[in-house]
């Protein structure tokens, strides 16, 4: 009788562990789906990419309401916006651009293309 109770208890713990793992994977998939569709995060990532390309400049970016972001298939976002950067005299100039950011998973974004106008 005691062995049956121990086996039953082990089976219950095993089932709880399996359910817990499945739940964690589901949460991870939900998080990935949210990141994939997050246009604001895509815009922030393109800002970071532009800052990495021009670290010597103090770049200013417009608010999210002043730009255009189009969601594309396969976790891609097309961002049409601008940034302001100083010239040699310190005067800020406007640079328009269109970028495509791709969310590749695991919290990693890739700048696929950047075209200035």
Number of helices: 2
Helix content: 40-55%
The strands making up the biggest β-sheet line up spatially as: 1-2-3-4
Distance between the termini: 79 Å
The major β-sheet equals: 4 strands, antiparallel
Category from helices, strands and their pairing: alpha+beta
Q: Into which percentage range does the β-strand content fall?
A: 25-35%
Shape call: elongated
Which spans of ≥5 residues are poorly predicted at pLDDT below 50?
17-24
Radius of gyration: 23 Å
Order of helices and strands: HHEEEE
List how many beta strands DSSP finds. 4
Would you tell me the overall average pLDDT?
A: 82
How would you explain this protein's 3D organization?
There is one protein chain. The protein is of the alpha+beta class. 43% of the residues lie in helices and 33% in strands. The protein has two helices and four strands. The chain has a four-stranded antiparallel sheet with strand order 1-2-3-4. A hairpin with a 2-residue loop joins strand 3 and strand 4. The chain is elongated. The model is unreliable at 17-24 (pLDDT under 50).
């Amino acid at each position: 009788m005691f062995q049956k109770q121990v086996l039953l208890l082990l089976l219950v713990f095993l089932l709880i562990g399996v359910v817990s793992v499945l739940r964690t994977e589901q949460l991870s998939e939900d998080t990935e789906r949210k990141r994939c569709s997050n246009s604001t995060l895509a815009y922030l990532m393109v800002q970071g990419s532009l800052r990495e390309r021009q670290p010597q400049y103090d770049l200013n970016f417009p608010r999210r309401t002043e730009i255009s972001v189009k969601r594309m298939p396969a976790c891609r976002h097309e961002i049409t916006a601008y940034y302001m950067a100083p010239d040699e005299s310190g005067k800020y100039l406007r640079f328009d651009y269109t970028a495509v950011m791709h969310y590749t998973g695991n919290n990693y974004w890739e700048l696929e293309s950047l075209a200035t106008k």
